[in-house]
Amino acid sequence: MTALLLLLFALVCAIGEAGAPSVLRELLPRRPADKRPARAKAAIAQQRFSEAAEILDGYLEDHPDDGDSRVQLGWCRYRTGQFQKSHDAFAEVLKRTPKSDDARVGLGYVALQTEGGDAAAQWFRDVLSRDATHRDALEGMVLAGRRQPVTPRTAAEAIAAARRLESLSKTFRPELLPAGSEKRLRGPEPPSTPLAVPARAIKDFIEIADGNGGFEPIFVKGFNLGVALPGHFAAEFPTDENLYRQWLDMMAGLGANAVRVYTLLPPEFYRALKGHNAASPDAKVWLIQGVWTELPPDYDFANPSYRDEFHAETARIVDAVHGNLVLGPRAGHAFGVYNADASASVLAYIIGREWEPFAVSEFDRMNPTHDFNGSFFQVTSGRPMECWVASMCEYAAGYEAAQYRVVHPLTFANWPTLDPLSHVTEASREEEDYWRERYGVSFPKRLKGLPWEDDSVTLDATMIHPTAGMPAGFFAAYHIYPNYPEFMNIDPQYDDSRDAKGPNRYAGYLAALKKYHGDQPVLVAEFGIATSRGVAHVHPQGWNHGGLSEAQQGEIVSRMLQNIHDERYAGGIVFEFLDEWFKSAWSVAPFECPADHRRLWFNAESPEESYGILAARPGSTTITLDGNTGDWGRAKVLAAK
Predict the structure, then answer these.
(1) What is the dihedral of CA 497, 503, 505, 507, to 10 degrees?
(2) The domain containing residue 27 runs over which residues?
(3) For the residues of 399-452, what is the DSSP string, one character each?
(4) Are residue 460 and residue 378 in the same domain, yes or no?
């Protein structure tokens, strides 16, 4: 309405000027256009809302009837959290222009912040009674249904609004989806469709299809990508497609041919991956996709509810990489509209994570299962945990085959703590207690929890065999660092190990582990070195857990990757691409109080925060923790006494 009035006013002015004598028209003074609305618009585009509000305040003193500018002022106040001033601006528009739906929508959003869902719904309901397709009002109504207090009527209207938004467009804001909702965009492929095998893990290496019916081996050189930016927790994922694209371009520029992610990322990541590989086919980055989960209650991996949720998460991830998923908001998880089919970039799946040894030991103790016979994987005379892992891989392979008629190589995440090798320097809790008692050293008879033991239980990938129905194969994946567990530093069997550059305990361990696995492909899914100031583990050759320069990091990472290649591993994935501030190490955790604030600052003493090839450092600091007490005179006092 405001725009229409301005148009009519402009037409009247034009007619009046056209009707004046030509000489008079030439003598009429021309008022320069007020540039303040344009300046405010530019500030808003750069999210400088306070600056835009100040400009609009001054402008509206001279042009009080400009309803559009006053609506903009209301939103600027809203964006800066000044809800009362935002309310006043929208209310003033409504006072001057009673039919303004823009003002009503603004008042509805203010009510969401200050009064709750039912109060806000009144404003959106009014607008929708005249325009049932008003997108801002529909989105506001969806939000009203999720903001207490809310009546059943408002909740029902919110669901109807979400359905209307979906019917209007497939590109509506994903945060407006009903919480926890799921939808597939298309059905399964016909069962008669031939099973595609874009990659396979058969002997020593992962191989990729060459397009002519054959396969060629690929040595995986990649980065692990944790996407927690400074100031954020691990599951606070960025949703900027350009940022993911920039990272992928940087990885490819560094010579990487793979990226490994641990869990489902936002849709923007998969769009960026597909876009990068379409634009740069000669610098393709393959995706190794993980499926994350936490420990089950009482360490019972066979718990039906735990198993079912793990299956459901596996299905979500497979659907997402195939561009066939719409997910509503889930706390601590990515969500959105996954409509970019990135499956042509998938190299393999890694199921689960590093399992705590006491959890594996407890599950093995309580579970009698030693065999697993599936359509895709088998275990004969194995351990219960090996059977469970095989069953999770079975589900992943079966789901992708049934839905998309394709299979990819599969594995589970493992580490030296659960390796199948024997380490003479590692003692069990039972052995430690025996010697303490013998020498009169006091020790707690009962621990608060189960003991952590690095060589007491095994999770052996060689016990899991792909069947004839799984042509994509199976491989082993380990996270192998040079300085943990302690047997990496002190086991005598690695004392004499060498590579071309001299003594190398890491190469000795790699050789022993690969010898055990034979020709089964083994991927080093994590390896790296930290550049922190603090040191948490000391290594005989100086490959410490922390305390190294970035130049030393580059040299050691390069040497480790060469060792991985020389020992005929399937590849190595550097941990990690980007520093993550939310992480902690045992050496600093007791001093990070409260722990939830760890993500807000960079701790130079923590090795776990400094593995990134791409450093994340504070842009500027007032005080550096360097021992100079004089700096603290410039600190702001937050509390006294």
Answers:
(1) -70
(2) 1-31
(3) HHHHHHSB---EEEEE-GGG-SS--TTPPPHHHHHHHHHHTT----SS-SSPPP
(4) yes
DSSP codes, 596-615: GGGGGS--TT-GGG---SB-
Residue 209's DSSP bridge partners are: 215
CATH number of the CATH domain containing 60: 1.25.40.10
- In a shared domain, residues 433 and 505: no
- What is the total count of domains within the chain? 4
Do 140 and 45 fall into the same domain?
yes
State the pLDDT at residue 169. 57
The pLDDT of residue 3 is 42
- What are the structure tokens assigned to 201, written together? 């893990």
* pLDDT at position 168: 67
Q: What are the per-10-residue average pLDDT scores of the chain (641 residues)?
A: 38 36 40 80 82 92 90 91 93 91 94 92 92 87 87 89 72 69 90 96 96 95 95 90 95 97 97 94 97 96 96 97 93 91 97 96 94 98 98 98 98 98 91 91 84 92 98 98 94 95 97 98 98 92 94 97 98 96 88 86 90 86 75 79 75
Residue 484 maps to a domain = yes
Same domain, 516 and 578: yes
Give the neighbor-by-neighbor strand order of the sheet with 336-338: 182-183, 325-327, 336-338
In terms of domains, do 431 and 338 share one? no
| Largest interatomic CA distance in the chain | 117
Is the peptide bond prior to 576 cis by the omega test (within 30 degrees of 0)? Answer: yes
Contact between residue 475 and residue 411 where contact means Cβ atoms under 8 Å apart:
yes
**Residue 534 one-letter amino acid:** G
